[in-house]
Specification:
This protein folds into two domains: about 80 residues, Multidrug-efflux Transporter Regulator, Chain: A, Domain 2; about 50 residues, no CATH class. It contains six helices and two strands. It has a two-stranded antiparallel ribbon. The model has no long low-confidence stretch (mean pLDDT about 95).
C-alpha cells in the first residue's frame, strides 16, 4: 500500500509518517522504481503501535524505547513497566499542575466583576499586579 493507504489504515497522517521516518522512529519502507513508499502489514502494525503510544501521551523518545522493547522478544517486562510507571508519574504531575491552574483561574474569574468597568483582577494577576501592591 502507498503512504495514503497506510495513513488511512493507521490513523497516522502521511506527514507524521514521513516525520517518524526522518527521525528514525520507524524504518523507511521499500520504494518502487518510481520512488514511492510501499507499506506492508509489518509497517502498518508498527505505525499502529506508534499511534497508540502517542495517543497515550508517550513522547517520541519514550515511544522509540517502547517500540524497541516491543520488537525485542528477549526483553523483560520489568523494562516496559518502568517506562510506563515513569510516564504515569509525569502524567500525574501534569494533572496536578493543570488542576492548580484551574483553581487559580476559577478564583480570578470569581473575583472579576465582569462588568463595564476597566479594572480586572484577571489581567492584574497576569501582569503581576496584586491589589495589596498595586499603586505602591
Amino acid at each position: 500500500m502507498n503512504i495514503g493507504e497506510a495513513s488511512n489504515a493507521t490513523g497516522v497522517s502521511a506527514k507524521m509518517i514521513r516525520y517518524y521516518e526522518s527521525i528514525g522512529l520507524i524504518r523507511a519502507p521499500l520504494r518502487t522504481g518510481s520512488n514511492y513508499r510501499v507499506y506492508g502489514e509489518d509497517e502498518v502494525h508498527v505505525l499502529r503501535f506508534v499511534k497508540r503510544a502517542r495517543t497515550l501521551g508517550f513522547s517520541v523518545e519514550e515511544t522509540a524505547t517502547l517500540l524497541g522493547l516491543w520488537q525485542d522478544k528477549t526483553r523483560a517486562s520489568a523494562e516496559v513497566k518502568e517506562v510506563a510507571t515513569s510516564h504515569i508519574e509525569a502524567l500525574e504531575t501534569k494533572i496536578a499542575e493543570l488542576q492548580g491552574m484551574v483553581k487559580t483561574l476559577k478564583h480570578l474569574a470569581h473575583c472579576c466583576g465582569g462588568d463595564n468597568r476597566p479594572d480586572c483582577p484577571i489581567l492584574d494577576d497576569l501582569a503581576g499586579e496584586h491589589p495589596t501592591t498595586k499603586g505602591h
